[in-house]
Amino acid sequence: MTSVFIAVVSLALFWMAAFTLWWQMHAWRTPEVLASTRFSRPDGGEHVSFSLLLPARHEQAVLDHTIQRLLESTHTDFEIIVIVGHDDPETSEVAERAAARDPRVRVVVDTHEKKNKPKAMNTALPHCRGDVVGVFDAEDQVHPELLAHVDHAFRTTGADVVQGGVQLINFHSSWYSLRNCLEYFFWFRSRLHLHAQKGFIPLGGNTVFVRTDVLRGADGWDPDCLAEDCDLGVRLSSVGKKVVVAYDSDMVTKEETPGSLMSLLKQRTRWNQGFLQVYRKKDWRQLPTFGQRLLARYTLTTPFLQAFTGLIIPLNVAIALFLDVPVGIAFITFLPAVTALVTFVFEVVGLHDFGKQYGLRVRFVHYVKLIVGGPFYQVLLAGAAVRAVWREQRGRNDWELTTHVGAHLTSAEATRDLREDVPA
Amino acid sequence: MTSTLPAVTTPKVPAQRQPAPEARSTSRTTPPKRLRSSRPDLILCGVLLVAILTVQGWNIADYPTLSDDEGTYLAQAWAVQEGRGLAHYTYWYDHPPLGWIQIALLTWIPAALSPESMTVGTMRAAMLVISAVSAVLVYVLGRRLSLPRWAAGLGMVLFGLSPLSVVLQREIFLDNLAVMWTLLAFALAASPSRHLWHHFGAGIAAATAVLTKETMLFVLPAVLITMWRHSHRDTRKFAVTGAVTACALIGLSYPLFALLKGELFPGSGHVSLWDGIRYQMTRPGSGFILDQGSGSHGVLQSWLYYDRVLIVGGLAGALLLLVTWRWSVTARALAGPSCTVVVLALVAMRPSGYLPAMYVIQALPFLALVLAGGTASVAHAVLRRRRSEAENRYVTGGRYALAAVLAIAAGAYVVPRWYDGARTAVTTDANAPYQAASKWLATEVEDPRGTRVLVDDALWLDLVHAGYRPGLGVIWFYKADLDPAVTKTMPGGWRDLDYVVASPTVRRDAVDLPNVRAAMEHSTPVAVFGSGADRIEIRQIQAASGGVR
After folding, report:
1. Total number of domains in chain A
2. Hey, which of A199, A298, B4, B353 would disulfide with B11, CB 3.0 to 4.6 Å?
3. Is this prediction's ipTM beyond 0.85?
């Protein structure tokens, strides 16, 4: 009886781990798939105009540089709309100065009492003049040729949404930033493309471009959702809008990981809670095929399944080793662990590829950190998942991070805490 | 917030298909993308398959002579089916058990329908399935390695119809199963779609091959070479790492199995993987293969007796391909098989190694492919090399004439020999003595259940079906001396036995087995089947006083 139970649990875990691995490796399935994940080369024509939203909050330190960099874009038809809060004079000042220097920059003031990113962007949406609305964060490093590539992608694919790559870069900062970077790498490099292909996609928080009419038709972003980006993607793909994902290592938007373990935990909690909210909104039920709905269900509950598997797998192996179960059953209990091991190996290879793609030197110690840090990161993810469920249960769905911006944080930490760099 | 967007009917976004950038490092001619939908390939492969199965299947039970090893593997498969463990006696890690577990699965349904059919002669039919799959895989691999259709077909014929193949592939040997898995590994490694999970599957197949027959370890580097050549630069690191990981993880399941059973390391009162490996590594060598009079030389002669074409031609083909590596596309495409042949040849040349007769089985498909590839290379050189549009008609005619002469000469040499081989295989009845002995023991002995008899494994299952007690009633003769669980039931040595079935194997090995030798010495033949060295005697033990026990 125990044996049967263990076998069933093990097989379920195995299938979960195997599917996740299968999807994680999507981009590298064949050379053709890998080639198709890139932007195709622009042909020089420019027919799409852009309105680039740049929500900024207490980010006076980095905002100006970001605006300057965006203005260097090779594309000729775009406007930048900086969204600042009415209670944030420092950032407003930086934005106004930039607007005075260049007519392509405009400032929109968000006067909501409780502020969050979706509200800010919804405030700016009526002011957008371009055919396409793009979203960036205040500290993003955007490649000058990105807009030209996105323009080309819109024209050649007939897409309603184009999601560009976002990549955390500072893998050497700490053990968790290494794993965090690699998570982004696998997500944007590989997994998102599978979602685009299957017609169900949780969008990323920035470097995302949506046709203005489509966005307005969808009533913009959900101001009450903690993962408004994910929600938008789910709503748009649920009604059959075409989403195209493209990832080029020299065209990605580069970002940095949260500055401390605690802020990573909070960010992840918000992300998970957002996923949970999107799941409960049930927009994904409109997806036409059973497979898509299953993928939606699975993707939106992944953080919780992940937390669960991370704790069960070691327990399972321990049972196999120390309890007296038949050898056949013991073998089955090893299946999820073996799959996890394969995932580990692919992560090591992924780290190598990451280093190659970005010209970064990955040292031996980083590989060691990656492997040793794996279980701890799993604990962190599990913690964030539990925390998200707990907060959702108690009805605490405020933007946790904004409430923590206070005197006890240095301005750099505050900036980091505010960044919305959640990839889904 | 609910969406107000109208639903559209085409939600599924097709992947953007873009051609992969061609890597310059792996220049090769492109194989057909989908063999399954290529009618000429299907027809050719199908026709050859029917021919191969006819020659291999006809008279399969009666030729070649039943061997003790076949009986052992089948008896172990029977033990698996019956839930008696991994072997009919104590499993002692002599080989990984996956091979006969597969045989058990393969024979499960017929054995369930008719338990008496679980005997060596009958169950050889199951090997036809393996032969068929392997032959098709040889063709597929040949095509995937860019051989022209006719050359892939030639490889399949060489592999399936060589008299050496016909003899060895009919027998229930683990090597035949391992060859199938190895071929699958090669075919997946050379997958034209260069799919990550195909390469991963190649790793799993390769590990399965090794766990089926451990000597396949030698072939792994060649699988890796093939995979390296066929993977794309951009995805190679994922593909190759994945395959190696898969192979290692599956391979490690064997030591893990031993660990779970507490039999990884030696200890008193139990067998261990460690001891099993040590036994295999320290088996007395059979001498240098080219040394006249050595055991290995005898084995080589026995192979050459059945077929020189495949062995000599295959080795020559491998050398030809290695020498022409720089100029010949075919040579580079066939790097995997030619490396396999060379590695296996070098391993066979170890002066101190033990060379079993079935060793050649794992080389057969690669000898065949390499010979076919060499032939294709020669054909290309004769027909196409330095040929220009403006070539003189007579020169072109001369090329075709030369090709025709070569083909006819090769045919004239090979066909009569192979015809003889095939005729022997489909007409000879080599197992009449075994069948007669089996029948005698089933009908002439009054109380099978209370009778103890030493046999070789070729007859073991026959006697089990005839009512003898498996294990201690019908005793695999080696165990009477080597298995403590059996010897402790015969405190009187030969006196506790009733019969010895003296087959050639028993007579050969009795020399080193005191109990068996004593039983032979204290017994007299009561029935003899066949004559000469191949005869089978049923010998009844005589009590010390001279009477029958």
Report:
1. 2
2. A199
3. yes
